[in-house]
Amino acid sequence: MAQGNELGEFLKSRRARLQPDEVGLRSYGGRRRVPGLRREELAQLAGVSVAYYVRLEQGNADNVSTEILDAISRALRLNGDEHAHLHRLAHPPRTGHREDPPRLRAPLQHLLDSITHAPAYVVGHYTNVVAWNRLTAEIFVDLAEVPPDERTWTHQIHLNGDYRSRLGDNWLPVACRNVAHLRLRAGQHPDDARLRTLIDDLLASGDDFRRLWEEHRVIELTHGEARIVHPEVGLLVLPFETLHLPGDPDLSRLMMYAAEPGSEYVDKLNRLAKTSTRRSSSDLARSA
Predict the structure, then answer these.
(1) Residue of 126, 200, 211, 247 with fewest CB within 10 Å of its CB?
(2) Backbone angles phi, psi at 215, to 5 degrees
(3) pLDDT averaged over the chain?
(4) Structure confidence at residue 282 as a pLDDT band (50, 70, 90)
(5) Is residue 224 within 8 Å of residue 88, measured between CB atoms?
(6) Hey, what CATH topology would domain 6-90 get?
């Protein structure tokens, strides 16, 4: 992961999105050399000296207090995810060095296998898919056909043309959400080598990911909606919820999708569930 000055770049990106009149400051007109607030204006709003704030933007957060970070957060009008991200950048957590692939407890796999009429999967800390059920493969991507080191949603969203076509017009919102979540994870797990490698690889892969990464958005993925154009049944709209796995430190969450009751998507899911069951039975018969 391009380390650089993550704290400074984040502060500058959040400062650039605010205008003086939005925060009650008088704008004296004329051409401003920087987008958004000047450093002096932000320091004034936060109640800190300009020199102190400049040191923070230079990445010098030694001994910065929680109170000062809170004041800067209020001045920048950060949301909850951004506020937590600012604190993590100033005081990086120690999360331990991970080398081995995460292990899945057998009951979790049994739970996934029991969910037959909706996609569900378990992901790790860098969007890596650790385990999945049949409908995940049927609706999104057949991850069994993907090399193990590319079994991340980041790879699939940004580098898999077939999956991008399934996302259709919804690709950009999904890509933005993915990159924002990945940046949040980078703040939570700054010493995760696999996470750093993933980000570096994607930064080198093309302009789309790099442009979104440089926006410094952060978001915790808790719930949302998937919109997929499936080649067999057409549009699927599936709300999803995330269930965190606090008892499994190497795993992040269980993702579960379901169609809205009474919607046309229920019937479509049922059709795909039958299709995936038939294909699975055929595969078993051929391997017998």
Answers:
(1) 247
(2) -80, -15
(3) 88
(4) very low
(5) no
(6) 434 Repressor (Amino-terminal Domain) (1.10.260)
Contact status, residue 213 vs residue 196, Cβ threshold 8 Å: no
Q: Which residue's entry shows tokens 């996470």?
A: 195
Show me where the domains of the chain are located.
6-90, 106-287
Residue 219's closest CA among 188, 177, 187? 177
User: What's the pLDDT tens digit per position in 32-63?
Assistant: 677 789 899 999 999 999 999 999 999 888 88
Residues 238, 228 contacting (CB under 8 angstroms): yes
What is the 8-class DSSP label of residue 256? E
The CB density around residue 171, as the number of other CB atoms within 10 Å, is 17
pLDDT tens digits for 105-158?
899 999 999 999 999 999 998 899 999 999 999 999 999 999 999 999 999 999
On whether the CB atoms of residues 36 and 27 are closer than 8 A, the answer is no
Structure tokens at 180: 């924002």
This model's pTM is above 0.70: yes
CATH of the domain spanning 106-287: 3.30.450.180
